[in-house]
Design the sequence.
């Protein structure tokens, strides 16, 4: 099972002064009878009672000017921190931090190694994954099996969001569709680049020109597919 929590340690953005939030997805095994893990119950209770918790084993590094990569080793764990000085401080300011104008730590976006689509990958097998796990691989994973060559990942039962209205939706010479879109499933959201064939298929269009005309008529829509 998995849940997403928003971590807040009182940190503020250097330039905007806004409180910083860090979204983290936590995975845990369900109980034998199917009940949610004890950890999830404890985290929910801590939110309701405004109790501070300490998270151990989360490693983060800056990968680009605006991107970060976070991961956790197998020895990740968390514990209630109400008895610590920092924990008491956070609990005293819990309402203020919760209601403050905030911004999430920006996530990394992996630039495609094949932006001009000069290679063909239709017959390559893909490994089934989730948005949360794929997001964790957008930075430098240090995993040789992933970093040494191009790898293929498949997300099932997801929603593909339309690109922003003012976003670039074509490659540099405007010869084919190539756009950054958000893909979302029950585990979270990740931003990836979409190829022309996929964009046409989801929009029900046959050509790039037809796709380009859809936003002007307010009929552009991506149909949900597995």
Sequence:
């Amino acid at each position: 099972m998995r849940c997403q929590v928003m971590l807040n340690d009182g940190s503020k953005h250097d330039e905007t002064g806004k409180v910083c939030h860090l979204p983290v997805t936590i995975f845990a095994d369900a109980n034998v009878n199917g009940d949610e893990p004890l950890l999830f119950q404890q985290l929910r209770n801590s939110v309701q009672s405004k109790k501070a918790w300490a998270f151990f084993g989360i490693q983060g590094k800056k990968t680009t000017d605006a991107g970060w990569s976070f991961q956790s080793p197998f020895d990740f764990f968390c514990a209630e921190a109400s008895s610590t000085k920092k924990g008491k401080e956070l609990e005293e300011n819990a309402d203020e931090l919760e209601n403050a104008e905030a911004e999430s730590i920006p996530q990394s976006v992996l630039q495609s190694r094949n932006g001009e689509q000069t290679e063909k990958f239709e017959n390559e097998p893909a490994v089934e994954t989730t948005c949360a796990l794929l997001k964790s691989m957008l930075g430098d994973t240090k995993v040789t099996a992933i970093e040494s060559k191009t790898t293929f990942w498949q997300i099932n039962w997801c929603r593909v969001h339309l690109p922003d209205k003012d976003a670039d939706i074509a490659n540099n010479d405007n010869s084919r569709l190539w756009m950054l879109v958000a893909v979302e499933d029950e585990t979270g959201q990740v931003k990836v680049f979409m190829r022309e064939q996929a964009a046409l298929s989801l929009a029900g269009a046959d050509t790039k020109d037809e796709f380009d005309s859809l936003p002007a008529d307010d009929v552009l829509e991506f149909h949900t597919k597995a």
